[in-house]
Amino acid sequence: MKILVIFTGGTISCTNKNGFLSPSADAAQSVIEEYRRLYSDDTEFEELSPFTVLSENLCAKTLNMLISTAYEKIKQGYDKIIICHGTDTLRFSAAALAFALSGEGAKVVFVSSNYPLDDKRSNGAQNFFAAVEFLKNYNESGVFVSYKNKGDNAKILLASRLLAGAEGDDGIYEANGDFAAQMINGKIEINRDYNIPKCRKSEIIKFCEPSQIAVLESAPSASPCIDLSRVKAVIFKPYHSGTLCTESTALADFCRAAHKNGVSLFVAGARNTDIYESAREFERLGIVPVPNCTLASLYIKAWLAVSADKDITAFVQKEIYGEI
After folding, report:
1. In what order do the strands lie in the sheet with 233-237?
2. β-pairing, 14-17 with 2-7?
3. Cα distance between residue 162 and residue 159, in whole Å
4. CA separation, residue 30 to residues 55, 114, 116, 118, 146 (Å)
5. Whether the Cβ atoms of residue 267 and residue 246 lie closer than 8 Å to each other
């Protein structure tokens, strides 16, 4: 079996240089060397590095390059791909690839690391091993993420349904605690109760720079304050209950100004059950809830709509790959 490994930088490719973590080609390749040392099988790896960047510096240019690279390689016949990526923006890149490659018939798994590979706290090697075993034993196409949270097994998660951990935590989770498979005692175990969503054929995707999307996090008595002439959409990140302070006159004024400027308003992580009465006010304020859609997937879909000059509200409400 042959697997294409695309290295893009991030912590999994970093070493400590003078007290700072920096990407290194040698560090990146060490994860493959470690796999070969521990697993005596016929897996072949082909390596490719279209760019190297710390993932916090992800932008339209690097995202477009990653998508076009994966797309071209799939057209050349590569159907098993691992993408080594930084953890900070993993959720966003994974969602972008999930939508861009939907329906292309390939199996793609993102792998990252919470610490450099030579750090004993690192989960990078375990994430990589689980990704390889998943590709060897799973036949359905799709885009996934392999990640081991603290105190847990390495799990295979759907790329369009990713949540970040608690504040300051390096965890990555799938919404509702779901997972497609997990690594137990060196072997991958497929979750037979897991339903892989159907893929809707997607055109090759290109992102514009900047995204023209603002993200506003909830906080008591906060006053939304951005230049509405520079954005086309605003995504509110609500409290965990899917609520905003809808009694706020500052919020109401902001929403009126946004609509006057033709700016679309959304709330990520909205609920379609157990809805609080404050969330009933979204309709009055012109805020569109996208039930169960994670912030990363909602942001990427809005960015796609802006980039393609599509109706943003209509586009984000149409499911592509299990994100709603």
Report:
1. 213-217, 233-237, 264-267, 288-289
2. unpaired
3. 6
4. 19, 16, 11, 9, 18
5. no
Residue 185 above 70 pLDDT? yes
Q: Cα(2)–Cα(81) distance, rounded to whole angstroms?
A: 9
Give DSSP secondary structure letters for 53-78: B-GGG--HHHHHHHHHHHHHHHHTT-
What predicted TM-score, i.e. pTM, was given to this entire model? Answer: 0.94
Q: Is the dihedral of CA 285, 289, 90, 18 positive or negative?
A: positive
Structural tokens at position 312: 């943003």
For 183, list phi and psi in degrees, rounded to 5. -95, 120
Across the chain, mean pLDDT equals: 92
pLDDT at 159: 96
Residue 135 dihedral angles phi and psi, to the nearest 5°: -65, -30
Rounded Cα distance, 214 and 238, in Å: 14
DSSP states of 163-228 = EE-STT---EEEGGG--SEEEETTEEEE-TT--PPPPPP-------SS--EEEEE--TT------G
Q: CA end-to-end span of the chain, whole Å? A: 34
**Rounded Cα distance, 316 and 293, in Å:** 9
Question: Residue 17 pLDDT > 80, yes or no?
Answer: no
